[in-house]
Amino acid sequence: MTDPDSMDDAELLRRFAAERSEASFAVLARRHTGLVLDTALRITGSRPLAEDIMQTVFLQLARKAVGVAGSRTVAAWLHRAAVLESRAVLRAESRRRRHTTEAAAMAAESLLTSPAPDPRMMELLRSLDEALGSLPAMEREVLLRHYYERQPYHEACQWLGTSEAGARQLAARARRRLATWFRRRHGMEISSPGISTLLAGHFPPGSSLSNGLLAEVAARAAVMPAAPPAVFDPGKVFYFLSAMKIQAALCLLFGFLLTLSLDIGRERVAQTAAADDDDDDDDDD
Question: How far is CA 156 from CA 12, 38, 193, in A?
């Protein structure tokens, strides 16, 4: 039997989906725990919340393993899931207490080595997860593997199913997209080396979890029911098409009434002008 440590992410997910293999999921969780945990920690500023979010994200992955297994962008999927779950948790927490913003700001400051961090740099670091989320999945994947998981391009390319040159091209394109995003969003001109520095500073060496907690996550994932497959529902399609037809009919009716009212208005204006001309002729006589 193939050693799980030698399998790529997609293979691990396929085995897990088919066999609910706890060992396969444990390897996958160990590879990407730091990515998910640190992303959640940056956004929430709370280690306990980040650990809860990490577990939730991996359980989501277990539930959706069949769908995600067909992709080579597992790290990108996990990063996006961590960002979305962290924001949802912050919204829930903010309803109970109003100190979330201050806690997140304190956590962001801890990422910087300078005793007096530049406010503009703070803004960049807080925005980088959002900027990464705007990238295509393959480009986000190569940046996460190279800058966060510290994989050289010749290793990252094996997980991505491309060559080393292809991985480097993806990374270069992603850095250009990030530079464009910051220019449009923040009015900042950042070079490609500057983006590299920002990514490296944003992603310190990954946080670790105890083996006990990782084992708990894998065990819970193994008994997590898979998401039901998407089923074609003719009734929903018919309902959607019917709604579209009703909307189209209402638009046509609105257009007809608008045109009719404009025609009536123009006709009344013309009648009024004609009546005024007749009155002027009578006055001349």
Answer: 16, 20, 20
Domain edges within the chain: 4-222, 235-285
Residue located via tokens 């998401």: 227
Helices within 134-233 (DSSP H only): 137-143, 153-160, 164-186, 192-202, 211-222
- Per-residue pLDDT, averaged over 268-278, amounts to 66
Q: Is the pTM of this model over 0.70?
A: no
pLDDT at 170: 93
46 φ, ψ (degrees, to nearest 5): -135, 120
**Residues 104-133: tens digit of each pLDDT:** 455 544 444 444 445 666 566 668 888 898
Q: How many CA atoms lie less than 13 Å away from 250 in the CB half-sphere?
A: 6
Which residues neighbour 100 within 8 Å (Cβ) at sequence distance 6 or greater? 44, 45, 90, 93, 94
Backbone dihedral angles phi then psi of residue 18, each to the nearest 5 degrees: -80, -40
The C-alpha atoms of residue 95 and residue 41 are separated, in whole angstroms, by 19
Distances in Å between the alpha carbon of 252 and those of 73, 118, 184, 264? 45, 56, 39, 18
